[in-house]
Design a protein that fits this description.
two-stranded antiparallel ribbon; two-stranded antiparallel sheet; 49% helix
């Protein structure tokens, strides 16, 4: 997994569902640790921007309306600056300090979409709030984890088939 993929999934998956309720991980100590891994300080403004980018990207990936406008509003003031080098142009992220970690996540999303188009998706378990990057050859991965969501979904499907096969009493 590339660094961009790892970075993107780390942030996208910071609101897992535990016991039926979403758990916010971009707050407190956990949020500060992640923001620092992204080159930030963990300030309240950084964490707010990270939550905004995460939420906007989750909606965008899931195909919900208004996601691009939300992403644009969170990243207002972020620019890419060209740096001319001997072998070509390299684009450098230019962002206010409080937006830099969130901008890195948005940049990682762009790179993942360019390298693996159509492979970033939400888990097929509707009771899960996690995302995956499908690395299978045929592009058929459905679940964030086969050992959790995959097994649950297959067990539900089996139970549904068994109930349907039972004669009515």
């Amino acid at each position: 997994m590339s660094g961009d993929e790892e970075l993107l999934l780390q942030v996208l998956n910071t609101a897992p569902v535990v016991d039926g309720e979403p758990v916010e991980q971009l707050v407190g100590r956990d949020g500060v640790v992640l923001a620092k891994r992204l080159g930030g300080t963990g300030s309240d403004e950084e964490l707010r921007a990270l939550r905004g980018v995460r939420d906007a990207l989750q909606h965008l990936i899931a195909g919900r309306d208004g996601a691009t406008a939300a992403l644009q509003s969170v990243l207002e003031g972020v620019r890419m600056t060209p740096l001319f080098e001997v072998d070509g142009i390299r684009w450098q992220l230019d962002a206010p300090p409080e937006l830099a970690p969130a901008a890195r996540v948005a940049q990682a999303w762009t790179l993942v979409n360019e390298r693996r188009p159509g492979r970033l998706r939400p888990c097929a378990n509707e009771q899960c709030n996690l995302f995956l990057i499908d690395r299978t050859r045929p592009g058929t991965a459905k679940w964030c984890s086969m050992s959790t969501c995959g097994n649950r979904m297959k067990a539900r499907a089996y139970a549904t088939r068994q109930r349907a096969a039972q004669p009515s009493r």
